[in-house]
Design a protein that fits this description.
- The protein is mainly alpha-helical.
- The protein contains six helices and no strands.
- It has helices at residues 16-31, 38-55, 61-75, 81-84, 91-97, 100-115.
- The radius of gyration is 26 Å and the shape is globular.
Length: 116
């Protein structure tokens, strides 16, 4: 039996910018910033970016600006349905609302599909 060498993970060291970005996203999730009003988010980002600038002194101003931009984009949904006035539809709720004719039709389809 051959001796096996223990496998070692070769992980690349985390870049300082990547580390700061990961920490920012972690703070965003833990602090509930996603649900905050825009003006509160701005205040939170001002304070948090000051903290990150002190913590990661080797990041340039350009990198800190990019980091803030990434964090702000992370907090904004791609499509804000609430402001569009559109409602989301719950498919399960729609099934419950449907009448007895629809339920009978669905059960017939299930029976037909299981006998095939």
């Amino acid at each position: 039996m051959a001796d096996r060498k223990p496998t070692t993970r070769s992980s690349r060291p985390v870049d300082s910018f990547d580390q700061a970005r990961n920490e920012l996203f972690s703070h965003i999730l833990r602090c509930g910033v996603l649900k905050a009003a825009v003006e509160h988010q701005k205040e939170w980002f001002d304070d948090t970016m000051d903290y990150l600038a002190d913590r990661y002194t080797y990041l340039s101003d350009k990198e800190l600006d990019k980091l803030r931009h990434l964090g702000e984009m992370y907090c904004r949904p791609v499509i804000n349905r609430a402001s569009d006035g559109q409602e989301t539809v719950d498919v399960e709720a729609e099934k419950e609302v449907s009448g007895p004719e629809d339920a009978a039709k669905e059960s017939d389809e299930v029976v037909a599909a299981s006998t095939v």
